[in-house]
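Weekly structure sync, notes
Attendees: PL (lead), two postdocs, one rotation student
Agenda item 3: pending single-chain targets
PL asked that the sequence for the first pending target be pasted directly into the notes so everyone works from the same version. It is reproduced below exactly as submitted, 484 residues in total.
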Amino acid sequence: MTDISIRQGQVDLGPPGRGLLVVFGLVDEHGVGPDVEIDQSTFYGALHPDDRDRVAAEVQAALDPTIGAYDTEYRVGVESPRWVRARGRAYFDEKDRPIRFLGIVLDITADKQREQELSRLTKEAQAQNEAKDEFLAKLGHELRNPLSPIALGVALLRERGHDDPALDAMERHVRHASRLVEDLLDVARIVNGKVRLVRSAVAFEDVVQDAVASVAEKVTTHEQRIEVIGEDADAKIHVDRDRIQQVLRNLLDNASKFSAPSAVIHLEYGFDGDDAFIEIRDHGTGVAPDRLDTLFDAFAQEPQALARSTGGLGLGLSIVKGLVELHGGRVEATSVVGAGMTVRVRVPREGPVEVNADVAEPARSDAKRVLVVDDNRDLCEILGALLEARGHTVHLAFDGHAAVDAVHVFAPDLAFVDLGLPGIDGYEVATRIHAEVATPPALVAMSGYGQEQDRARSKAVGFKRHLVKPVGPDALFEALAELG
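Predicted structure, written out during the meeting:
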């Protein structure tokens, strides 16, 4: 038998009414011997039942002189059908009457099998990606939840006048754990194309200085120093300010991690043609040449001493690369082992400007009536105590139904509502409050889920803010001042 990858045949159909078909080749598929005439019913009878009417209609349409040809695919047989691609052309007399139809058929079973396998693998990969995204989102939620009462508990102790080095350590480790969770989720968002940049015209110097300030505590703890050299302090760049600060923070954090105590980290920024550039140079351990190619891969880490406690998940530089490329830029690194590393980031200076339409309301500092809703009683009670320490009147609720009842009775100015509540969830709580209360309180969502779709969903049901756990006291009181 001929190899299926090259099997082909020819079709020669006489004038309509003659009903004869000559088939050359593909005899096994059509159930006839070579070079024989068969009627059309025998030919169509060999086709898969689901394809017969369609193929007959396409052949008939090709006998219209305004169409004159067809190109189709169909199956031959039922139990173990083979796929065939058929192309044909009709020939007409001077009165546009069809007089002959010639065609060619090719066995494309192998191609179809490959397509089906590719489709199956693609669907499996999509399902795995969706499962991974769901797992990472749940992981982030579960990791964030226990961090919230710790962060707010530290703030409450400070509010009550406690000043202990242990509180400083707790704050540092909560921040570190929160950063690890965010890094893990950011990598997943970048890989899946779920990061949306919000660009605006910002002062280049401000972006740099804010990033430097964000790592100042760590650098100072290591007795290190960051030397900044820049040009044109008033120059603007069109970027997502938060994301570029995240890029610089990760790079500075990395430079500090692998530099010795008392080291100087150099940061230079400026313009090169149409690009803005930022260069960070340290004098740390450096990276071997064969490691530079994988330096920005996810989970890539340099070997560290077992006693080292500053390691992360190896995601910081991967996030840097992803965010820079989203800006249309690129990142490069050079290094000499034992003599440090230089990382240079370039992004287009100009870009589309997006304006955030959300305008914060004027801050108010007077005492408020605040409802706190969370089924985590530790978090709920600590948050309530912290608010009371600032002079606010607080009511606590531990489930969704109690939250709706409390709004009617307590009449709060603002409500902090956990979204993952038993009974009815926070989304339903917001929906009912806006439906039942003439003047509803300002609602602030609290959740361990903080992806874009989560924020969009909470906004759609009326929440004014979406705070991602662990909720720090600064974010808490800022929301209260703006919305209460």
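Discussion points:
- The chain has three domains: 4-107, 126-198+356-484, 200-348.
- The chain has a mean pLDDT of 80.
Action: rotation student to compare against the earlier draft before next sync.
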